[in-house]
Automatic annotation (TrEMBL):
<keyword id="KW-0132">Cell division</keyword>
<keyword id="KW-0067">ATP-binding</keyword>
<dbReference type="InterPro" id="IPR003593">
    <property type="entry name" value="AAA+_ATPase"/>
</dbReference>
<dbReference type="Pfam" id="PF00005">
    <property type="entry name" value="ABC_tran"/>
</dbReference>
<protein>
    <submittedName>
        <fullName>Cell division ATP-binding protein FtsE</fullName>
    </submittedName>
</protein>
<feature type="domain" description="ABC transporter">
    <location>
        <begin position="6"/>
        <end position="227"/>
    </location>
</feature>
<dbReference type="InterPro" id="IPR017871">
    <property type="entry name" value="ABC_transporter-like_CS"/>
</dbReference>
<dbReference type="InterPro" id="IPR015854">
    <property type="entry name" value="ABC_transpr_LolD-like"/>
</dbReference>
<dbReference type="GO" id="GO:0051301">
    <property type="term" value="P:cell division"/>
</dbReference>
<keyword id="KW-0131">Cell cycle</keyword>
<dbReference type="InterPro" id="IPR003439">
    <property type="entry name" value="ABC_transporter-like_ATP-bd"/>
</dbReference>
<dbReference type="InterPro" id="IPR027417">
    <property type="entry name" value="P-loop_NTPase"/>
</dbReference>
<dbReference type="GO" id="GO:0005524">
    <property type="term" value="F:ATP binding"/>
</dbReference>
<keyword id="KW-0547">Nucleotide-binding</keyword>
Length: 227
């Protein structure tokens, strides 16, 4: 049987008392690349937040990287985040330190101790996103696409089972978006599972893959038409 990385059954997602999504049923298996699309306000970010423990799952069932979202306790959230790689639209790099130190900071915060191993790991992930020569730079010295590649490198540090990317190309021009997408595709080819929320239909057409749509407070799989 294929490894199930993420499964929701009859899940409802709320922002405070407001129902955002209901009867969500889905299953993502190891190695899949899945898009999550939908209009502004349709619930994509709320959905992603539920998956990384920022919004509690109060109704239905959900499991992600072998953790139960319904019974997830506050103190289990760091453990969940360690098994996930999360990439945001606005990169969220720490502006006051270099790329290298941004990566070392995360390694330290996630329990790494050996300095040489930490440096080697930082270089390894930078290499994967083709940023190995830029470790000494500060985030503001990088282009948006480069910052996002560093953010992807950061997401890879702890070898996550699942990468959640919420509008990772939302702040990038079309050409840079394609470059970032190529990086995500390469990562997916090495067997990592990726769930990516996006508005970018051009990317969907260029890199077709399983697509889920949030609409009318439901999430359903859509069949992509080739153009
Ligand atoms: N912190 C919050 N408190 C209350 N309601 C919220 C909160 N965040 C979002 N919402 C509401 O939840 C609904 C879904 O919003 P969400 O941000 O998940 O949509 P989205 O599809 O990600 O939109 P976008 O593409 O603009 O990011 C919206 O009606 C929004 O107003």
């Amino acid at each position: 049987m294929a490894d199930v990385i993420l499964e929701l059954k009859n899940a409802s997602i709320f922002q405070r008392e407001n129902l955002v999504l209901s009867e969500v049923n889905l299953r993502v298996e190891k190695g899949e690349f899945v898009y999550l699309i939908g209009k502004t306000g349709s619930g994509k970010s709320s959905f992603m937040k539920t998956l990384y423990g920022d919004l509690p799952l109060k109704q239905g069932e959900g499991s992600i990287v072998e953790l139960d979202l319904r019974t997830l306790k506050e103190k289990e959230i760091p453990g969940l985040r360690r098994k996930l790689g999360i990439v945001f639209q606005d990169f969220k790099l720490l502006p006051d330190r270099t790329v290298n130190d941004n990566l070392l900071f995360v390694l330290k915060a996630t329990g790494w101790k050996d300095k040489d191993a930490m440096q080697a790991r930082a270089e390894e992930v930078l290499e994967k996103v083709d940023m190995k020569t830029k470790g000494f730079k500060f985030p503001h010295q990088l282009s948006g696409g480069e910052q996002q590649r560093v953010a992807i490198a950061r997401a890879l540090l702890n070898d996550p089972e699942l990468i959640l990317a919420d509008e990772p190309t939302g702040n990038l021009d079309p050409q840079t978006s394609v470059e970032v997408m190529k990086v995500l595709q390469e990562i997916n080819k090495t067997g990592r599972t990726i769930l990516m929320a996006t508005h970018d239909y051009a990317l969907l057409l260029k890199y077709p893959s399983k697509t889920l749509k949030c609409d009318g407070s439901k999430v359903f799989e859509v069949v992509q038409r080739s153009v």
